[in-house]
Structure formats: C-alpha cells, structure tokens
C-alpha cells in the first residue's frame, strides 16, 4: 500500500534556546530583538483581534442593548459577583518581560498567568508590574470594577500544565514570586502600596476562586495567548502543549475560551508544500502557515479567525494571528 509522504523538518534545540535568551537584556527591546518600537502597534493589533473573537470580554456596551450603557455595566458587575472580583483569565506563554501581559492582556482580562523559562525576565516583570496601568488602577476605576492580577511561573511550555501552573512549573528553577494584585481603593482600609504582595496574601487565603491573587488549582482560561515563543517547540511538544491548553479552556455556555497563536510565518516551499526554517542564532524554527495549520489539526483544533498583523517593518517575517 502506498504510504503518505512524511515531512521531516528540523527541530528546535530547547536547552540552547533558553541559554540564548538568558544572554539577552531583560528589556522590551531585548525580547523583540531590537524592534522594541513595534510593541505599540503589535499590542493594538492584539487587543483588537482578541475583542473581535471574544466580544464578551469588551467593556463597551453593545449597540443592541435596550438599557443604558451605565445600567449594562452595573448589571455586568453584579453578574460577576460584585466589585473587586477577578472573573476572566489569560495565560501568557513565553511571556518574556511581561510586554504582552501589560499591554495586550491585562487591559482586557482580570488575571494573567505568565509562563517564562528565563528567571531574569520574570524578575524584571515582577519588579515593574506594580506600575503597569491595569495593576496601578484600583477596582473602583477598573473595567467592571475588577481586581486585576499578574501571576509568575518560571517554566518552559514543554513542562507547564496550564491547568496547574503552580504545581507543574519546575520548582527551584527560578525565584518564586507572589502574584502582583491591583491596588486597593484608599478608603477601604486595605494596603494601597502598589506592590500588593500583602494584598496577594490576604486574598489567597480566602479560598475564593474569583480572588485575583488566589493560587487555587485547577485553572480555566478565557484565553491562552502564544506570541513569539512557539518557535522553541518541536511539532510533538507543540501538539502536546496545545492539547493541554485546550483542556484548560473554559467551556461553559457562552463562556468558551480560545487559544491564540501570534507568530512569525515564512513562505511555503516553491512547490506549495509547507516548510520550516532552522535559526542558528536562537536554535529555534520558523514555520510556514501550512506547517502551523497541520500542527493545529493534529492537536484537534479548528482555526476560527486568521489575520496578518499590519504596520510592521518590511524586513520582518509576516506575523499572523
Ligand atoms: N512573548 C514575549 C517574549 C518574546 S521573546 C513578547 O512578545 O514580548 C521569546 C520568549 O520565549 C523569551 O522570553 C524566551 O525566554 C521564551 N522561551 C524560550 N524558550 C522557551 C520555551 N521552551 N518555552 C517557553 N518560552 C520560551
């Protein structure tokens, strides 16, 4: 019987990939390879894309409502359990210094879990996080009056289980950080320090699943966001990670979660078949669109929307999400 031709592609070197990033400066310009200036347009494209796919996350009242926008927001806050709750959650995969968490995810969801294997990147994110606008904003001024939080997990995507980031991240690999929780409102007697470690401790002991600093597992996500990091996963590791991520998505009626992949793509081969490039510098691979589509199909995923990120410099790879 004739056999289907199997495509053999180069695989990334995971260990040397992490070693490469350990030598990079812990800055936005560092993680973007000297293209720090694209961060703004990138984040705008990401937020717009996310709200198009999951309009339920939007803080703007839809035109179709028959109450006032003010009443709509009040109803939403009540449905979320009142002021100060964290209801929506994202995973930021290969989070670097927290650029995507700060600018693309936390403005929209209440709680973000960052997964990043390079300890100094995570330390930089933790240090800066109290100043990130969504975390420096008290619940009374926050969209839906939510209490926002960033959580930090030192791990590769090969090792992490999104449902159990606290227990699956390799212990002792990097310093462990308490979550940074948004500041309290001044008049409520809580600490309004901005570092919020004490607030995190206060909330994590309540056992309430909707408290922003809670470390309770398993977790369910509205969004698993992968950006500029899947080049460090072989097809086998990527299929396994996408399957674990899918298991950790919310799946309630009207509450389905999504996985977003925002990555460089190279051109298909001249004969139209998928192709993959090996990068000698960071020991990663760049896939063509068809190579990603095959991996998604192998993970049992369906593509529901695809866009090209506009406004990036010509000399860069095409970036699709
Ligand atoms: N997503 C971030 C960072 C991009 S740089 C942003 O867009 O700003 C690529 C990141 O992937 C680095 O932080 C690097 O440390 C991380 N990385 C490298 N190997 C990884 C792996 N095996 N699993 C998860 N992340 C990895």
From TrEMBL:
<dbReference type="GO" id="GO:0005737">
    <property type="term" value="C:cytoplasm"/>
</dbReference>
<keyword id="KW-0489">Methyltransferase</keyword>
<dbReference type="GO" id="GO:0071885">
    <property type="term" value="F:N-terminal protein N-methyltransferase activity"/>
</dbReference>
<protein>
    <recommendedName>
        <fullName>Alpha N-terminal protein methyltransferase 1</fullName>
        <ecNumber>2.1.1.244</ecNumber>
    </recommendedName>
</protein>
<comment type="similarity">
    <text>Belongs to the methyltransferase superfamily. NTM1 family.</text>
</comment>
<dbReference type="GO" id="GO:0032259">
    <property type="term" value="P:methylation"/>
</dbReference>
<keyword id="KW-0808">Transferase</keyword>
<dbReference type="InterPro" id="IPR029063">
    <property type="entry name" value="SAM-dependent_MTases_sf"/>
</dbReference>
<keyword id="KW-0949">S-adenosyl-L-methionine</keyword>
<dbReference type="InterPro" id="IPR008576">
    <property type="entry name" value="MeTrfase_NTM1"/>
</dbReference>
<dbReference type="Pfam" id="PF05891">
    <property type="entry name" value="Methyltransf_PK"/>
</dbReference>
<feature type="compositionally biased region" description="Low complexity">
    <location>
        <begin position="193"/>
        <end position="206"/>
    </location>
</feature>
<feature type="region of interest" description="Disordered">
    <location>
        <begin position="160"/>
        <end position="215"/>
    </location>
</feature>
């Amino acid at each position: 019987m004739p056999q289907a031709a199997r495509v053999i592609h180069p695989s990334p070197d995971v260990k040397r990939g992490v070693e490469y990033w350990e030598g990079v400066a812990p800055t936005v310009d560092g993680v973007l390879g000297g293209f720090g200036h694209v961060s703004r347009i990138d984040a705008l494209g990401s937020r717009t894309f996310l709200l198009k796919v999951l309009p339920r996350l939007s803080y703007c009242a839809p035109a179709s409502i028959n109450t006032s926008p003010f009443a709509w927001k009040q109803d939403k806050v009540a449905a979320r359990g009142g002021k100060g709750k964290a209801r929506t959650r994202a995973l930021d995969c290969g989070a670097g210094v927290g650029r995507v968490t700060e600018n693309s995810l936390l403005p929209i969801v209440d709680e973000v879990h960052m997964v990043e294997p390079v300890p100094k990147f995570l330390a930089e994110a933790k240090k800066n996080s109290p100043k990130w606008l969504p975390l420096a904003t008290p619940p009374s001024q926050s969209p839906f009056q939510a209490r926002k939080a960033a959580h930090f997990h030192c791990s590769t995507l090969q090792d992490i289980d999104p449902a159990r980031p606290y227990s699956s991240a390799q212990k002792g690999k990097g310093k462990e950080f308490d979550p940074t929780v948004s500041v309290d409102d001044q008049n409520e007697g809580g600490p309004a320090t901005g570092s919020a470690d004490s607030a995190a401790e206060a909330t994590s002991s309540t056992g309430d699943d909707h408290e922003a600093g809670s470390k309770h597992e398993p977790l369910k996500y509205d969004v698993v966001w992968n950006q500029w990091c899947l080049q460090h996963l072989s097809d086998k590791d990527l299929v396994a990670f996408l399957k674990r991520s899918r298991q950790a998505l919310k799946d309630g009626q009207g509450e389905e979660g999504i996985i977003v992949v925002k990555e460089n793509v190279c051109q298909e081969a001249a004969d139209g078949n998928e192709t993959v490039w090996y990068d000698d510098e960071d020991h990663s691979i760049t896939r063509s669109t068809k190579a990603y589509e095959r991996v998604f199909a192998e993970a049992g995923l369906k593509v529901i929307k695809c866009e090209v990120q506009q406004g990036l410099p010509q000399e860069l790879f095409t970036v699709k999400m």
